Amino acid sequence: MPEPKRRLPRPPYNPGVRDLVEGKRAWDERANLDSQREGFGGWHERGYLPHRDSPGLTQFITYHLADAFPAELLAEWAAILKIEEQRERRKQLEAYLDKGRGHCWLRRPEIAALSEDAFRHFEGVRYDLRAWCMMPNHVHVLVQTKTVPMSQFVKSWKGFTGRQCNSILCRSGAFWADDYWDTYMRDKEQEQATVRYIENNPIKARLVLAAKDWPWSSARFRDKFGRLCVPPANH
After folding, report:
1. What predicted TM-score, i.e. pTM, was given to this entire model?
2. Which run of H or E residues covers position 152?
């Protein structure tokens, strides 16, 4: 008999997330029928994490490899999931990701390049990129939504790259974890702080000494004034 398929770690089911989302919907000034018809879900959830998907928002998105929270190392990260305050929990989870657990497939240049090209490909069409960084086992992207809902383009990124990367690695199964984290930017100050966080992540993780030295980050495309000039994707 074939061995039963092992369930990969995922965000814990959160029964309180539905009430949280319902409360946020009540004051969402961007929620309207027109945006809903275009596929923007506004405040919504899938049982795990709250998401806000509305046109014009600038979003800090994080997604990670399926094995970034290894089941065999549950004792290392299980306590983080019990942190009630959402912002602090995400902060601690991202700090754990920086430890580089799992296979860290994104260390391979061909995997990192393919994954980076996926979101650079539709720059200026579906969204405007503000910053990004490919870490060994996770990805940070800061992007302003335009005509395509965030849920759709993130699904597109992960679906396409998951298939292509598995082909390169001669493997099958989940490449990316199911869900993703998103935080919308309330003002320019928060956005600028998020850009610094994203582009300095390789320094924080002790992978390089200078942000521009990391080969899979938007930092390498900034001019002397700090302006981001995104070149076309390689393929």
Report:
1. 0.79
2. helix 150-169
